[in-house]
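Weekly modeling sync, notes
Attendees: S.R. (lead), two postdocs, one rotation student

Agenda item 3: backlog of single-chain predictions. S.R. asked that every request posted to the team notebook include the full sequence so nobody has to chase files. The rotation student volunteered to paste the first one in as an example of the format we agreed on. Action items at the bottom.

Example entry:
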Amino acid sequence: MKPFSILLALVFCISTGTIAAKEINAKKFVSMTPSSSGSKIPQTLSTAAREFSVNVPAFAEALKAGQQSIIINDFPISATEMGTLQLSPVRSIVDAETEWFVGSKRVAGPNVVAYRGTIIGEPNSRVLINYAAGDMVGCVIHSDGAKYVISPYSASTSVDRPHVIGEENALRKEHNAPAFLCGTEDIGADLPSVSDLKKKYGTEILSTRLLEVEVLIECTDEFYRLRNDEEKALAYVVSLYNMVNMIYEDEANITFKILGTQLWTTEEPDEYPNSGIDNRK
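Predicted structure, as returned to the notebook:
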């Protein structure tokens, strides 16, 4: 009877170890701006967005690679609410064969770790958080469809970096930006939304197997100047496609793989006379 008891205890330990999630309080790496008086957010966004700072070393520890599952308490899930997230690591959309170029030089890939999951207590909610070379880039989609984006609020490389969580449509309206646009005034390359694909091909998914779309990405020198840092710019690209990938996998059974990325800089600018323009106007 004793060997059986030992075996049963071992199986129990293995089972509980597999499903146990590391619990983290977001206050270890997130500090909310105490009031609107101390915020740099425009008054027009005062009810739709909230500023906070991220401590980079603590954030890197919280979202380090290799964890099976994590629970993050007291995390900002809107401009006014805090919630609890249950997250698991995301399959990478880059690999050892992905090529990275800054101007004419080949460089190493950026440090990006991504986790996705849900808000506990909100069925059908979706959350994706990227550690992107020290920045937090992500999205929160509530069960009622409300969408919030998380992004650095400056090009800071300090230990504590300003960030913002804001309602997607309000931020887009404030910055006069389209929902998702690739290309320049010279060359347009819109990425079709899932709803556009369903209108064109029907509501059924294209295949029961996960379909992979391979992409090559080119980033203008204007895109670089917004961050003024090579790794931060490349990390933002990967983070953005991680978020796009989540939507396409969930709703269209399509995944993305980045084959290569070309980033132009102020030292080696792109050849486009007009970049960052909405070509659909």
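Discussion: group reviewed the output briefly. Residues 1-17 have pLDDT under 50 and may be disordered.
Action items: rotation student to repeat for the remaining queue; S.R. to check formatting next week.
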